[in-house]
């Protein structure tokens, strides 16, 4: 019996993640036929099809889905081994950007783990909304960034980490129903991040799905301050559910169910494709470990 190879697992992971053999080939800097051959060999070894056609695209079969988490664990392990090799030179300064909502929950445990694993590595952290962090990454003012739903860029690699649960949050003083709708919230004070941000598009798009515009929409550039204003009953807003957990436990706020639902927001690591920096590899792998232990992201 032939052995399953890391190359085959990479082909499976990136084809499943990107839903395209061509995209997986570009991500791995290989030809499309090479990816197809590796997938065929893996299917032969497993003994079952791993992908099925859907229109012009493909998606994992049930067997393929069942393998993804194990495959990701294997690939993460390989990366960790590579990161701990003698002579990889993990140390010095790394400039890292974080989307603010993600950083509010995850940055502390991430930095603690980085300090423990790589005492010679010194992160310089920038925290803001993706709309502000992403341009600095593309201008090479950052070495690495963790972004919410970033744009694809030919010079930058995007590594999907999973999706953070996102919802309408409101103070309990609003006494809202179990499931809220655009018509039910349109007359309430609403707060969002500035125009052009993902948060602003979420808010406006949700109301627009019912042909509505919120009667009062305040703007705040800080996710942390936005959450504080929601917590104190000034307005209602959309942000990661994890940020509201303590307030919900203490009875100050509720994480609302909504119709239509608020889509979870995907989190990506992004860095220049031409980088071979051991610091970047080590930092990304550490973030993956921490998120897995926190069970913070869905589908990570």
Summarize the structure in words.
With 300 residues, the chain is of the alpha/beta class. The protein folds into three domains: 6-83, Orthogonal Bundle (Arc Repressor Mutant, subunit A), CATH 1.10.10; 92-163 and 265-294, D-Maltodextrin-Binding Protein, domain 2, CATH 3.40.190; 166-258, D-Maltodextrin-Binding Protein, domain 2 (3-Layer(aba) Sandwich). The protein has eleven helices and 13 strands. The strands form four sheets. A five-stranded mixed sheet has the order 4-3-5-13-6, sandwiched between helices. The protein has a four-stranded mixed sheet with strand order 8-12-7-11. The protein is globular and about 65 Å long. The mean pLDDT is 90.
Q: Count of DSSP E strands?
A: 13
Q: Report Rg.
A: 21 Å
Order of helices and strands: HHHEEHEHEHEEEEHEHEHEHEEH
Spatial ordering of strands, largest sheet:
4-3-5-13-6
Secondary-structure-based class equals: alpha/beta
What is the number of domains? 3
Portion in beta strands: 15-25%
* Total of DSSP H or I helical runs spanning 4+ residues: 11
